[in-house]
Amino acid sequence: MDAMSAGSRDSDTATGAVQTAIDAVYESIASGDLRPGQPIRQETLADQLGLSRQPIREALRMLASDGLLTYRRNVGFCARELSSAELDQAYRLRRLIENEILCGTTDIAPAALTRLRELNTAIADAAARHDLGAVRRLNAEFHFTLFAQSGLDLYVEELRRLWRLTNIYRAIYATDPNTISRIVAEHDAIITALESADLPRLIALHNQHREGTLDALTDRLGATETATATP
């Protein structure tokens, strides 16, 4: 093997190690294992993943540049905390982008409708098994399967960033069986609006779906902020 080939292989290995670390931290955020403001112990993460500290540091820097982590002096990298005002801003941006995307989804392919039904059934099944990780992943797949029908790839890419930013809070929210039942019922209504190509109703239902989550998150976050501020 020549030096160039060896260097390329080493680079690929390093890139793979960084991505492994990124995926692991992101999963901890999305699942709620890593709480808002919680520090990330680089040594512990390196041991868990069987990696050296260098790809861990690079992964944390990249996640911080994406807004998912913050760096605090004398503490290190921590899961980002959003204030209730910042959470509201993120959801306002989501509303703007998602509504634009939904305008391009009314001519949805039958296969995509079938897939949405399958995913919603799978969400209900996962909830019955108390598999909250599967509920979270399937819910995201449901929405991004719908969004992908618009063909607005740059919009969808930006939307993924906003979803990642707020995942740490949705993980706290989507643990109540009644909440998941409501999510499934609202998904069914969204599918019905898609089937009838009723764009105003589709947008109204999707806004209601999103804002129900925001209201619950804001209530919980506001209560936390009040408790923290109380001497």
Rough outline: elongated
Q: What proportion of the residues is helical, as a percent range?
A: over 70%
The CATH architecture of the largest domain:
Up-down Bundle
Number of strand segments: 2
Question: Please, what is the average pLDDT?
Answer: 86
State the strand order across the main sheet.
Answer: 1-2
**Rg over C-alpha atoms, rounded to the nearest angstrom:** 20 Å
Describe this structure in words.
The relative contact order is 0.11. The chain is about 75% helix and about 5% strand. It has a two-stranded antiparallel sheet with strand order 1-2. The longest helix has about 30 residues, at about 200-230. It has 2 domains: about 5-80, Winged helix-like DNA-binding domain superfamily/Winged helix DNA-binding domain (Arc Repressor Mutant, subunit A); about 85-230, Up-down Bundle (Four Helix Bundle (Hemerythrin (Met), subunit A)), CATH 1.20.120.530. The chain has helices spanning about 5-30, 40-50, 55-65, 85-100, 110-130, 130-150, 155-175, 175-195, 200-230, and strands at about 70, 75-80. α4 packs antiparallel against α9, α6 (about 130-150) runs antiparallel to α7 (about 155-175) and α8 (about 175-195) packs antiparallel against α9 (about 200-230). It starts with a helix and ends with a helix. It is mostly helical and about 230 residues long.
